[in-house]
Specification:
Elements lengths: L4 H7 L9 E6 L5 E3 L13 H6 L1 H4 L11 E6 L8 E5 L1 E4 L2 E7 L6 E10 L9 E6 L2 E6 L1 E4 L12 E14 L2 E6 L4 E15 L2 E6 L10 E7 L5 E5 L3 E7 L6 E7 L2 E6 L6 E5 L1 E7 L2 E5 L4 E4 L6 E2 L4 E2 L8 E6 L2 E5 L9 E6 L2 E6 L2 E3 L3 E6 L7 E8 L2 E3 L6 E3 L5 H4 L5 E3 L2 E3 L2 E3 L9 E5 L3 E6 L2 E4 L4 E5 L6 E6 L2 E4 L26 E2 L4 E3 L4 E4 L66 E2 L5 E4 L6 E7 L4 E8 L5 E9 L3 E7 L6 E9 L2 E9 L1
Parallel strand pairs: 1-3, 3-6, 4-7, 5-8, 6-9, 7-10, 8-11, 9-11, 10-12, 11-13, 12-14, 13-17, 13-18, 14-19, 17-20, 18-21, 19-22, 20-23, 21-26, 22-27, 23-28, 26-29, 27-30, 28-31, 29-32, 30-33, 31-34, 32-35, 32-36, 33-37, 34-38, 36-39, 37-40, 38-41, 39-42, 40-43, 43-44
Antiparallel strand pairs: 1-2, 15-16, 24-25, 45-46, 47-48, 48-49, 49-52, 50-51, 50-53, 53-54
């Protein structure tokens, strides 16, 4: 059971309490000073880990409980700019309302591990540099954490920053860097917890080896299997690992945003991983550059996620990262050492109920992959891949399905099912894969693929199905295919499709030029001549805040799904475009804009000052007119009464800037969404 439930329940019914603020200032030479009192004898040396571990002395309280003093431990450079170097693991437990930070966020203090860390005062592990557990309302920010260079792979690397069994944690503006050694980690969240935010952090220059990042991480264990074949293992290093490894409770409400992950040699681990009993997580607007394996991994079914109380794997129904949003990230050059395996920029490996939306993946082995590596009749399911820009990934743009077969997993193969892949833009991927292609389909069932642009290389296929990976119901339609030097719609699907009967669909797909704005500057918005405009599936369902049991949300100012450029998608009165962008060049006549599926006419469109809205229907009552800009921000809300069957209202929008806007016209339970152009 979680601790401190009673304290929390009592506290929420108490009137507001303004706790005292205690600041403890410390320098690398161990001089500690308190802002409201004496930190012991001020001229006596105190190490950083000693101060942190002795709340009763330095915090002025015995328990530092959730209803007492908020304490800030403020780190200063030494007189000559010295940083903290420690040979002791720093461990905090049962702390509340604590802030640990540098005095100057623009000149952060470094906490650096010396070689051969010894145990913290509580006897905690010697490979964890800085750990906080069983605590509430903790802030750690504006600090540099640094490890050491360990080139001997027989030595376990340090795990620099670690949090477990905590609630209400803010990790902000940290630099975690220069840490080498097999099995190490930059940042580790373990156990369970609630409400953790990791923001504006840099993870740089770390890995299982500080030598050439192209070194093969696989090694022979010296043990043979029953057939006499050597059993191989693999070195690894986790950049940031969010691991729910408790059956008792989950790690949930986690946000990783605006962080930069670069130059990480992760071997067989990943750069940012959500795995195990983890739910309601977000990876937002992060940048990944030049790492040696998967950029973002959302994983499930791994037996390494073990409950420490019983040393048994997490229950199967809990051992999947789920209810997650991966949005707005940029992932570049995630490439596995020596090209041994295809590293995905973003990879769902056995996850479920996840939205991968509005990301840019470029130069990775594979742009985005949805698979399930673990055998046993398991699955990745209900993954939605939408509005992504996927360009020049050498082994393919999108992989969907499991590579597993009966003869290579020693058990029942797993699958990928009930996923939607739509409104993505794929550009010249698969330049070194054989055969070359944009999309690869493996063992899977009941998946949808529509409204996607596939701008293929001249010698490449659009969609390739692996011959030895049976799949069913991979439904394709309303896609746009194109290649620069071939106008015919040949080589759309790979001819090698057995034992699959066909790649079904594409009856309404097109072959034509998407007409991007500027591919050289990665601007894959579409121009007015694009064949993608108004040619998507007219029955496309947008994502709303109700998706993922209410966890999905696109933006604070709208509940509409946004395209890659941050503009809202239009589905009711105008047909959706194909690809990641919704064009602003919707064909508009100078006269009436008449939606054939409604009894509403707007004229003139385009306009300079006034528009006329003509409504012909039996409805009588209040009509609401709501004006939005392209980002979905509500600009105006106008209401009036409709009392006649045919009624025209003139509305003055002369005050708005020139450009394209959207209006919602609501009559009773009916809503029409229409574009208008101010010139």
């Amino acid at each position: 059971m979680r601790r401190n439930i009673i304290v929390f329940l009592i506290a929420i019914f108490l009137p507001a309490i303004f706790f005292a603020q205690v600041e403890i200032h410390i320098t690398p030479d161990g001089i500690a000073v308190m802002s409201d009192g004496d930190a012991g004898a001020q001229n006596n040396p105190y190490s950083l880990d000693y101060i942190l571990s002795n709340a009763s002395v330095f915090f002025g309280i015995a328990t530092n409980s959730s209803t007492t003093t908020v304490t800030s431990l403020i780190l200063h450079h030494g007189a000559n700019g010295e940083n903290f170097e420690t040979n002791k693991a720093i461990f905090l437990q049962n702390r509340y309302n604590l802030i640990v930070r540098s005095a100057d966020p623009n000149n952060p203090v470094k906490i650096k591990a010396e070689q051969n860390l010894i145990q913290a005062l509580d006897g905690s592990s010697t490979d964890l540099l800085f750990t906080i557990r069983d605590s509430n309302n903790i802030v750690v920010k504006d600090i540099i954490f640094e490890g050491i260079d360990i080139t001997d792979t027989n030595i376990t690397g340090y795990s620099l920053v670690n949090f477990g069994y905590n609630d209400d944690i803010l990790i902000e503006n940290l630099t975690i860097q220069n840490n080498w050694g097999a099995g190490g980690r930059g940042l580790w969240l373990f156990g369970w917890g609630n409400n953790t935010v990791i923001r504006n952090c840099l993870l740089d220059n770390m890995g299982w080896t500080s030598q050439n990042g192209d070194i093969n991480p696989f090694y022979d264990t010296g043990i043979d299997d029953v057939d006499g074949n050597p059993i191989m293992s693999c070195y690894g290093y986790a950049g940031a690992l969010i691991q729910g490894n408790e059956n008792e409770d989950s790690y949930e409400d986690i946000t990783v945003e605006n962080c930069n992950f670069m130059n990480l040699t992760t071997g067989c681990n990943e750069v940012l991983t959500f795995t195990g009993n983890v739910k309601k997580f977000q990876a937002l607007d992060n940048i990944f550059q030049t790492n040696t394996n998967i950029g973002i991994a959302i994983a499930g079914h791994y037996p390494t996620n073990r409950d420490p109380d019983t040393n048994t794997p997490i229950n199967a129904n809990l051992n999947q990262a789920r209810y997650g949003i991966v949005r707005g990230n940029e992932v570049y050059n995630s490439n596995f050492a020596r090209g041994l395996y295809p590293a995905g920029g973003i990879y769902c490996d056995g996850c479920k109920d996840v939205v991968i939306e509005g990301n840019l993946t470029q130069g990775n082995d594979v742009g985005i992959s949805v698979g399930c590596e673990n055998a046993g009749g398991l699955s990745a399911s209900n993954v939605t891949v939408i509005n992504n820009t996927i360009i020049e990934n050498p082994k393919g743009g999108i992989y969907i399905g499991s590579f597993l077969n009966d003869d290579n997993v020693g058990g029942t193969p797993s699958t990928v099912q009930n996923c939607i892949i739509r409104n993505n833009t794929l550009y010249k991927n698969g330049m070194i894969a054989q055969p070359n292609g944009e999309v690869f389909v493996n063992r899977s069932e009941n998946n949808e693929f529509y409204n996607n642009i596939l701008h293929m290389r001249n010698n490449a296929f659009g969609v390739i199905a692996f011959c030895d990976q049976p799949f069913s119901n991979f439904n394709m339609d309303y896609n746009l295919f194109y290649r620069d030097d071939e106008i015919q719609n040949s080589r759309i699907n790979d001819a090698c499709i057995e034992p699959n009967s066909n790649l079904s669909g594409n009856q309404n797909s097109l072959f034509g030029a998407p007409t991007f704005v500027d591919v050289n500057s990665n601007n894959f918005d579409i121009q007015q001549a694009s064949a993608a405009i108004n040619t998507g599936d007219p029955n496309t369902q947008i994502l709303t805040t109700n998706f993922l049991n209410g966890f999905y949300h696109s933006d604070d100012i709208t509940d509409n799904e946004l395209d890659y450029g941050g503009n809202i998608r239009i589905f009711n009165s105008v047909r959706i475009d194909i690809g990641a962008y919704e064009s602003i060049f919707e064909p508009l006549s100078v006269g009436a804009f008449d939606n054939s599926n409604s009894n509403i006419t707007i004229y003139p469109n385009s306009f300079q000052t006034d528009i006329n809205i003509k409504m012909v229907s039996s409805y009588s009552g209040t009509v609401s007119i709501r004006l939005y800009n392209l980002q979905g921000k509500l600009l105006e809300n106008i209401t009036f009464e409709k009392i006649q069957e045919s009624q025209t209202e003139k509305i003055n929008f002369g005050y708005i800037s020139n450009g394209l806007y959207f209006i919602d016209i609501k009559m009773g339970n009916s809503v029409e969404k229409i574009k208008i152009l101010k010139q």
